[in-house]
Write a structure and sequence with these properties.
This protein is mainly alpha-helical. The protein contains two helices and no strands. Its EC number is 2.3.1.-.
């Protein structure tokens, strides 16, 4: 994270809503939920 910010990159975090561990880690690093989107899955 520090490398990104020191070099002009803006890191972001993306994970599924049910991934509680990843969400907790993101919050620990100071990330906040900015938006939510839905994915649809279907077989062809």
């Amino acid at each position: 994270m520090k490398y990104c910010k020191d070099n002009g990159y803006e890191p972001y975090w993306e994970c599924m809503e049910k991934n509680f561990g990843s969400r907790a880690l993101a919050e620990k690093f100071g990330y906040n939920k900015e938006f939510e989107y839905y994915l649809y899955e279907f077989d062809f």
